[in-house]
Design goal:
Length: 137
């Protein structure tokens, strides 16, 4: 059985995203897969690439052949270099900068007012009523 590591297309018409999958070479592009080992979102800036390195190394070691696109992704993540024996293989994937944390402006009035806490005597009354009903029985 010839096994390939390839991209499975998902998403909308002009907004594709892909899963990096291991599949039999005879199956359809979006057909049945053996295992999903990563994700690739090319439309984001920078492109989102996530690969399970351990599983990619396993499938490459047992003879799975990556397509050209997947091979390029594996080179970016450093997995292809590790497979070929390069001990200094490093990921060159760019990571998106995290969004700054939201800080409320103290000068402006808050739009929502905090709700006032309701007193808890109703709960005490319910306990007293429950005790009275158990005493009668």
């Amino acid at each position: 059985m010839a096994v390939k590591i390839r991209l499975k297309r998902l998403g909308k018409i002009r907004a594709p995203y892909y899963r990096i999958v291991v599949a039999d070479s005879r199956t359809k592009r979006d057909g049945r897969v053996i295992e999903e080992i990563g994700k690739y979102h090319p439309t984001e800036t920078p492109s989102f690439i996530q690969v399970d390195s351990e599983r990619a190394q396993y499938w490459l070691s047992v003879g799975a052949q990556p397509t050209e696109q997947v091979e390029a992704i594996l080179k970016l993540t450093g997995d292809w270099g590790k497979f070929k024996g390069d001990k200094n293989a490093v990921s060159t994937v760019q990571v998106r900068e995290p969004k700054p944390a939201f800080v409320a402006d103290e000068k402006k009035k808050p739009v929502l007012k905090p709700k006032a806490e309701k007193p808890a005597p109703k709960a005490e009354e319910a306990e007293v009523a429950a005790d009275a009903s158990t005493d009668e029985a």
